[in-house]
Design goal:
262 residues, mainly beta, four-stranded antiparallel beta sheet, 13% helix, globular, binds 2-oxoglutaric acid, binds fe (ii) ion
């Protein structure tokens, strides 16, 4: 772990302040010259300071431990399965990514984020999050994500019968950003069993799941570096949402999907 900017690489962009798990104030900085993320003890002053192209708002996230950048990008896949009703299930593996901080900064910096607008009744409203989708042939913004897609494809192949190809990305800038109740039912998820694998970095947010037509909802917290996979009939017999919350720092999610699932 680097404690201070490297000599000669002092042009720093994108500064996040946060408390690590031991309660210490630290800063995460991107060195523009070498592209590395650096963590330094935070000096007193405003908790938040951010500057990056096209988006400037308070950024403050609680991080897990910083991992050694040379380590493997993700732990061995061994998720725990929770069976829901009607053939739906959800797999969870906490702290799957080895260096979620690096993935966080890469996603913030390298994804060509765009805001979407949707027609709703008589008005055109802004979709409350930033989005971008990488298709099968597009290079992903961080090697750990390419590795994650390969590992997920291998692990789930016996059950899924095909690889994960696309990577949908969402940027929840703060607690006001959200996803309303829906199933990923455009394409094959409407009629066939499939899987959607979500890698999450940044502040924890809750993924709520509820049976279509009513029933008790189930909450899965998606934390920094966690993996959550929705599978079986989940997209057509259940719905999911990421509700708004009063306070949250940024969270980014990458959803890996097989061909023709949206
Ligand atoms: O942010 C997430 O993890 C879920 C997003 C989602 O459900 C979707 O984009 O279809
Ligand atoms: Fe979804």
């Amino acid at each position: 772990m680097l404690q201070r900017p490297l000599a000669g690489h002092d042009e720093i962009d994108l500064v996040h302040t946060f408390q690590d798990r031991t309660g210490l104030d630290r800063r995460l900085e991107i060195d523009k010259a070498c592209g590395k993320a650096l963590t330094v003890p935070s000096i007193s002053g405003p908790r938040t300071c951010v500057r990056h192209i096209g988006y400037a708002r308070a950024v403050d996230f609680q991080t897990s431990l910083f991992a050694d950048a040379t380590a493997h990008s993700a732990a061995v896949l061994a998720p725990e399965r929770r069976h829901l009703s009607r053939g739906a299930w959800v797999d969870v593996q906490r702290d799957w990514l080895t260096d979620p901080d690096d993935v966080f900064t890469a996603l913030v910096e390298r994804v060509p984020w765009r805001s979407e607008r949707r027609e709703m009744y008589d008005a055109v409203v802004e979709v409350p999050r930033l989005v971008h989708t990488y298709l099968a042939e597009d290079p992903l913004p961080h090697p750990a994500l390419a590795r994650a897609r390969t590992d997920l494809s291998e692990h789930y192949l016996p059950e899924l019968g095909e690889p994960f190809v696309s990577a949908g990305c969402c940027y929840y800038r703060d607690g006001r950003d959200s996803v309303a109740w829906h199933g990923d039912t455009i394409g094959r998820g409407r009629t066939a069993d499939t899987m959607v694998a979500i890698v999450s970095v940044g502040d924890p947010r809750r993924l709520l799941l509820r049976p279509r037509g009513g029933g008790t909802s189930v909450a899965v917290t998606m934390g920094h570096g966690d993996l959550v996979v929705m599978g079986g009939t989940c997209q057509r017999t259940w719905e999911h949402a990421v509700p708004k919350v009063a306070h949250s720092g940024p969270r980014l999610s990458v959803q890996f999907r097989p061909l023709n699932v949206f």
